[in-house]
Amino acid sequence: MEKTQELSEIINRHLAFDGIEPCALPRVKLIRSTTITPAMPTTYEPSLCLVAQGKKHVTLGHLDYVYDASQYLVASVDLPLQGSIIEASEECPYFCISLDLNVTVLSELMLEHGTGASATTSKPGIALSTVTPDLMDAAVRLLRLLDTPDDIPALAPLVEREILYRLLHGEQSEMMRHIANAESRLSQVSRAIVWIKDHYAEPFSIERLAREAGMSSSSLHEHFKAVTTYSPLQYRTRLRLQEARRIMVSDALDAASAGFKVGYESPSQFSRDYVRVFGAPPMQDAQRLRANPGFAMA
């Protein structure tokens, strides 16, 4: 409890308002919310999420994950999720840190400490595990450096390396090895995801995507769905719809323009897909989100 309290106090000192903000520490974001938030679409990149106070609920396809200060969340690939903060208040805000995983350092640690090659089976690309005292201690020491910024260049890489070491030898060791091993199925799926993100507004074939990932079409479909819970084309649709939703809210685009911008040729198909995923017509949903201060906190 003392460590989580200190983590909360540091976040509170360096993030005085609700939001998700990068800080002076490389690859680290600070997150604060004084209100619960509705379920909103968001994309988790490969990262560690460590809650100091409060509770969050995320959904990946049909899978649900609820975590607080007793558990950490690891995402192994870019995943389109629904996220909501379910425990937060003015008196006890939700505090969390997110650390993007440095795959280069993770690979070095795997080689240096003989953890072996990863297995070839694929599992969902998100997982929860119990926070250990060693992991929490390292996280607190990393954030303490925000109070002594001159120490960050020399000491932050060392503490970040320790955090990755703890993950590599913790409950999610297998997932960490998947991430670190360039030849694992997870790494191949990750390459496919990166390619889709770069080309989501363009038409493409599964055969082309499989070549980019270095897999057969059948193997890609099997492992892609195991990791993301979506087929590659369903994943692309999610990315398109989430980006369309974002630009309708932030740039005030109309539905037809937003649909064309993300790759839809038919406004009616865009509207049908949008209602199916988000439960409301595009412009009605965008107007609701503009009026909701919790939109950016998903």
UniProtKB/TrEMBL annotation:
Pfam families the record matches: AraC_N (PF06719), HTH_18 (PF12833)
Gene Ontology terms for molecular function: DNA-binding transcription factor activity; sequence-specific DNA binding
UniProt keyword list: DNA-binding, Transcription, Transcription regulation
Entry-linked InterPro entries: Homeodomain-like_sf, HTH_AraC, Tscrpt_reg_HTH_AraC_N
Gene3D superfamilies, A to Z: Homeodomain-like
SMART domains, A to Z: HTH_ARAC
Domain HTH araC/xylS-type: 190-288
Presence of the UniProt keyword DNA damage in the record: no
The protein, known as: AraC-type DNA-binding protein
